[in-house]
Amino acid sequence: MVSVHPTQVRRFLVAHGFLPLSKLGRFTLYLLGVDLLLYMVDSIQGKLRHTDATWFGGLASFLTFLAAVLLFVLFVRWFRRRLMWRLRNRLIVTYTFIGVIPVLLLLMMGAVITYLFIGQFATYVASSDLKAELKSLEAVNARLASEVALAIRSGRPISGQMISQSQAHEDMFPNNELTVWYGDKPYVLHTAVEENGAKVTQRASSADTPVALPKTPGDEFGSLTVDRGRLSLRAVRVLTVNNQRLVVISSVPLDNALLSKVANNLGVISLRPFVTRAKGLTGPSNSASITISGTDSDQVVDLRPEAGTSNPQNVNGGRLPPPANRFDREVSFPATASLLDWQTGSDAGNLFIVVTTRPSLLYQRLFLTVGDFARSVMVALAAIGIFFGLIELVALIIGVRLTRTITRSVAALYAATQHINRGDFTHRIKVKSEDQLASLEKSFNGMIESLQKLLREQKEKQRLENELSIAQEVQAQLFPRQSSELETLELYGVCKPARTVSGDYYDYVPLGPNRVAIAVGDISGKGISAALMMATIHSAVRAYSLERTPALAAASVGSGVHVTANYDNSSFGDGEVDISPAQLCAMLNRQVYHSTPPEKYATMFLGIYDGATRKFSYSNAGHLPPLLLSRTRSLRRLETGGSVIGLFDGLSYDEAEVQLQPGDTIVFYSDGVTEPENEFGEFGEERLAQIIEENFNASLPRISDQVLSAVTDWIGANEQPDDETLVLARVR
Questions:
Q1: What phi and psi, each to the nearest 5 degrees, are found at residue 302?
Q2: Residue-wise pLDDT tens digits, 295-322
Q3: Which of 184, 505, 640, 644 has the lowest tally of Cβ within 10 angstroms?
Q4: Do 164 and 224 have their domain in common?
Q5: 3-class SS at 682?
Q6: 102 belongs to a structural domain
Q7: Strand pairing partners for 191?
Q8: Between the CA of residue 321 and those of 23, 84, 329, what are the distances in Å?
Q9: pLDDT band at 193; cut points 50, 70, 90
């Protein structure tokens, strides 16, 4: 049986995207699991207890809200990490917020302003027309009041004949109900039409209910009133006739016919009753209603919604024509009008007047007197709108092209960096434009070329360093591998190159059991050329020092060299000559002069120590004079010799000899020991002699370490300027 470890399952889910990586994502996933569990428990508990409300449901709802918030946060993170990673998406979002959203907001604001303007204008026209009807009713009522007052003054009784001759109220308001109060006695006057078309004036019957006297003081006014549940336009005129009060009240029901008249060439007007107070209304306050007289029969319109419904009944008037074009949409806008409670004389609430119209109808009403000029203005506005639309379209196209240019360049740069990261230095970006991004691409291509060249140079440098390392190893073999010690002389030397290979030279060549040749030199220049010349001089010194023949001595004498030849027949065979330091310098000068360029030369100090006599013969060819420090601490410089070797041909060299005593120490050194500088000046010969004197009784390696350490401290953090060579010889 194969067992699966939970860690393997988790890795599988994470790898395939089923398990989020972040702590917030895992917490949200666990929260959704708990939320689902609570919903299941709540559903089961509700079925068992036959109830819908449990505390599990409330907790689950809270967890659902919390999970939704966390999911939104995770979505924002994912959006920023994934979609916003690419520069193109960032620029698109930036352009959307800078260019598109403001335009959309402006369009939305323009649409809202247009809607508000159209709605306000439509409701203003409807309200103005309704007020105009009310003013007309007031004018008609004033005329009828004058006729009734004239009839009463003439002594005629109050009857329908007083208004039978007046056609104004019938033409303008055929449904006008006229109530006359003369003193305390009401009269309802109206006309009727018989079948043959003749008009007959009738007195009010007992079924007619007169309009009560107004509670609002004033001799003349008009208002939108509600009286015993009926909605109407009502005008009042108060006169004094024969010392009695005459009140004439005209009431026109606010029905479909009147609304159709008001809504002519405007659209549809709907009345939607809505009251804030129900004073004076019949019925309980929660079912207040008004009666609006229609053409056929009275209809009851609730001021409050019916039980179980949310929409009150409406009264509509007018007709909405078909649209003039595809943009001629329906626009509905509400307005309010105050209602007067006739029974109490107080405010009964508000009446919603909803006007449904079209922009073409309002355009005709607004520019009715302007004529063709309005059409010209509309054409100009449309042209401006189209022009700005084209500008926005062109800006969008330019923005998209610029965005593509930027993102293409960035994508090309990113792809190029990926090629470089894989080690492909042959990849180049194709430059397709002449802008700053194109210059950046060209600079990137140039950087790749420079980097490729640098790598080639690095490889060449590494090859040279390998060769220098080999040369260093070869040169290390040229220096003495171990100290050469005679019975009466102790030697120790060290060379510290400034670079990989050194141009300094030191060597000591044994010339027998009691004799040793000591050579110290400094080649002009540094590096490989100096190292090669050092190797040449090394081989020449070894060859000439070990070659002992009369011919060699004769050759050296023939060169004009001042020599002191020492014949030691006990050491060599008959006719053999041991070469002196001066002869060796002359021969080295001749060879270097003829085998090297004119600018190449070397300083050289050559000496031969005889252990049997403790005598030291030497010749100094332009080298820094070694220091002879005696056991009595006296200091002497070994300067006898001549010029540098290799610079002039046919030079002669002088030679000197010193008698050494046990304890005497000779210090051979190059300019790399005494000439390094810092802010206090050169290290100097005096400081070198002081260190030797302070460590006079120490071992030669110890003295050498002290000197080189002091030079290093003197240089400090600066680079070592020259090769440092130090050779010490102490007589026993």
A1: -70, 135
A2: 333 333 444 433 333 333 457 788 888 8
A3: 184
A4: yes
A5: strand
A6: no
A7: 201
A8: 63, 51, 11
A9: very low
Give, for 699, the enclosing helix (H) or strand (E): none
Residue 155 lies in a domain: yes
Determine the Cα–Cα distance for residues 305 and 73; give it in Å rounded to an integer.
Answer: 43
**What single DSSP character describes residue 461?**
H
Domain boundary among 429, 450, 477: 477
> How many Cβ atoms are within 10 Å of 698's Cβ, its own excluded?
13
| Contacting residues for 644 by C-beta, under 8 A, at least 6 apart | 601, 602, 603, 604, 621, 622
- Residues 644 and 524: their CA atoms lie apart, in Å, by 10
pLDDT at residue 347 in the model: 79
Residues 713 and 592 in one domain: yes
| Boundaries of domain holding 29 | 21-85
How do 627-629 and 665-669 pair as beta strands? antiparallel
Burial track 702-726 (b if 16+ CB lie within 10 A, e otherwise): ebbeebbebbeebbeeeeeebbbbb
- 472 φ/ψ angles, rounded to the nearest 5 degrees: -65, -40
Radius of gyration (C-alpha) of the chain in whole angstroms? 62
Amino acid symbol at 601: Y
Q: Using CA atoms, how far apart are residues 634 and 614, in angstroms rounded to an integer?
A: 18
Same-domain pairing of 493 and 533? yes
- Please spell the DSSP secondary structure of 230-245, one letter per residue: EEEEEEEEEEEETTEE
Residues 154 and 182 in one domain: yes
**pLDDT attached to residue 166:** 56
Q: In terms of domains, do 59 and 116 share one?
A: no
How many whole angstroms separate alpha carbon 728 and alpha carbon 726? Answer: 7
The CA-to-CA distance between both ends of the chain, in Å, stands at 89
The owner of tokens 């009691």 is: 514
pTM over cut 0.70: no
Of the candidates 512, 522, 472, the residue with the CA atom closest to the CA atom of residue 489: 512
Q: Looking at the 3D structure of the chain, how many domains does it have?
A: 4
Whether residues 147 and 281 fall in one domain: yes
